[in-house]
Give the backbone structure.
Amino acid sequence: MLKLPYGVSNFADLRRQGRYYVDKTAYLRPLEEEVLGSPYLLFLRPRRFGKSLWLSTLDSYYDLLLADKFDELFAGLAVHSAPTPQRSSYLTLRLDFSPILTSEGIEALRSSFFGQVRAKLHGFIRRYQSRVPGLAELMQHPQDDVLGLLQEILGLAQDAGRQLYVLVDEYDNFLNDLVARGDLRQYADAVKGTGFVRTFYKALKEGTGSGAIGRIFMTGVSPVTLDDLSSGFNIIKMASTHPLLNGLCGFTQPEVEHLCDEVLRAAPQVGPRPVVLADLMRYYNGYRFAPGGVERIYNPDMVLYFLAEALSTGAYPQEPLDSNVRTDYGKLRLLASPRPGGPNHDEGQREL
């Protein structure tokens, strides 16, 4: 039975459950070979565009503890027959900033941010304590010194001859919430001057300088926050509009055609192939991320939403737009609208 991966962002679960996977592993080699000129990348796409699944793919591929799971997870995929030299060679640290609280003031925001980082660092310690001497003792590190804990971890990893691959999901999600509702003072307290978010990314930069952090891949939806972090985190390279990565997240025309064929094979009553493909193109094929690029990219969430409904009911969904993405596009419109003092307003008119 065909199982679509709608809403599934964990690569290992997707593969073990036998769900349909649109293979993006061919991108691993050019990224590892640094054809973009840097091992520290920021990749922007709209929400629910497959970014979390890609980070999970990187996590599964580079985590040294999953070396013996390579065949199980990657058999049949592009990278399996020709794995890259750095496969299964990193300590992976994956951070997710989508759950950060933004509605209860700056101290609650700071506490939520560092609480999320601390939880991920503790998970990192438990995961790798058998591979890095001294790591287990760091569980006793003071709870309120998260940056100190990060620096201790980086130092021990370096002493052990190991490097971290840092994966940051939704780097700007909570900050975009502040901007979208006009809370620019709290935004400034987080990212300007000695703001706690800026200080955190400065610590990551120091980790790259020492060699403890070998690679960084960050995702988000907007470059607004990066502009305000740039002087403290000027190592990151914007990878979003590079022609090579136009199809990294999202579906290309051949990928949609193959997926549609699989669905119509299981549910032919949905409609004739040319009609279904034409409707998918009309509804969801509106993205071109690389300047001068000729290939348009389908929104994967909406394609999977459409085809999952078609597969389960034998008919088109009543609403062509997935309700889960409506609020996300509304937020993007607010971020793109100039306002006095806003991050995208003329610099001379800022009030911060």
Residues 168 and 218 are 5 Å apart (CA to CA). The chain has 14 helices and five strands. The two ends are 56 Å apart (CA to CA). The mean pLDDT is 89.
